[in-house]
Amino acid sequence: MKKIITLILLGLFSIAFISCEENFTPKTDFKEKFIVNCIVRGDTSFQTLTILKSYDVPGYDALVNTDDPFIYAADVRMWQGDDVYVLQRGERARKDTSRYKTPFKFYSTNLFQPSERDLLEIKVILPDGKTLFGETKLPEYVTYTGDKGIPSPESDNFALGWTGNHIYTNYLPRFSVRYRVTENNVTVTKQKVVPMSFIKTDGKLAPFYPKFSTNTRLQFTREGLDSAFYSLSGNDPNKAKYIILGGVLELIIFDDNLSKYYSSQNGFLDDYTVRLDEADYSNIQGGLGIFGSMLKQELFVGFKEEYITSFGYSLNVNQ
């Protein structure tokens, strides 16, 4: 600890000497770089990719640049084993034209939907012949291992969990109550998100929801589930028209590249650690950016019948 403090003080003294003895500028010599970003989704056949180039500005405000840095004349191909998919150029109207007036541009294919554990490669050939590469391996689907028939009348908490495929795999979970209700003679299916718990902030209770993490087991409170059940019907006195279909644990499962990128941006040790060697993560050879992949999965969780009917709601007879 003493050594770390000494290094910090030496750094501060060095900055002080620089400021006194010479003109200091945070800008370095400009070097053009190319950035490729593509997140392959396992729940759709529509995949997109963008290619940008870095740019320089006269001062220090990057927002003064109004020339779209997108590269629109590249050759972009994606491999799944021996199968190759060519991504075509496309564009859409830009919602925000305060900076760039031209349409939003991208490369895409609507012919490719990968499966879990697929190994994918991309190759981008720029107009000047420069080549960029990237690889990703899709994550795996998981199996539910949490409590069943929730909530238990003997406990104020219940656990939702799943099998983890890799200790570094990150997940973004969301637990909801799925129900069916008839409104204006139309039957619709809806969901009400369940908070894990409530925390006191500025003297008020606020819902707390799961975050992006490597956790594969989540502890929910009965209070959070009760709040979702109460609020899904609001002040409607006809509770029986609400048919509870069950609980749904939705997971977005991220590959190693996206998990490492998130860790590089947010840290991975604890809330009190500051990384001095933190750097943006990139897995694009010949440039910068991310070529990653993700899966979406739904895990169904049953509710106890007596819990559903205690709110006046109806059971799903087709379950």
Distance between the termini: 60 Å
> What number is the mean pLDDT?
86
The helical percent reads: 10-25%
Rg result? 25 Å
For the biggest sheet, the summary is:
12 strands, mixed
Structure annotation, total helices: 4
Shape: elongated
* Series of H and E elements: HEEEEEEEEEEEEEHEHEHE
Strand portion: 35-45%
List the uncertain runs: 1-21, 268-278
Total count of domains: 2
Going by helix content, strand content and strand pairing, the class is alpha+beta
The total strand number stands at 16
Explain this structure to me?
This protein has 319 residues and is an alpha+beta fold. The chain is 15% helix and 38% strand. The protein folds into two domains: 28-138, Immunoglobulin-like; 157-255 and 297-315. Strands 1, 2, 3, 4, 5, 6, 7, 9, 10, 14, 15 and 16 form a twelve-stranded mixed beta sheet that branches. It has a two-stranded antiparallel ribbon with strand order 8-13.
Summarize the topology:
Elements: H1 2-21, E1 34-41, E2 47-53, E3 75-80, E4 83-92, E5 104-109, E6 119-125, E7 131-137, E8 157-161, E9 171-183, E10 186-193, E11 197-201, E12 204-208, E13 217-221, H2 222-233, E14 243-254, H3 256-266, E15 288-301, H4 305-309, E16 314-315
Parallel strand pairs: 1-15, 14-16
Antiparallel strand pairs: 1-2, 2-5, 3-4, 3-6, 4-5, 6-7, 8-13, 9-10, 9-14, 11-12, 14-15
Task: Give a concise summary.
With 319 residues, the protein is an alpha+beta fold. The chain is built from 4 helices and 16 strands.
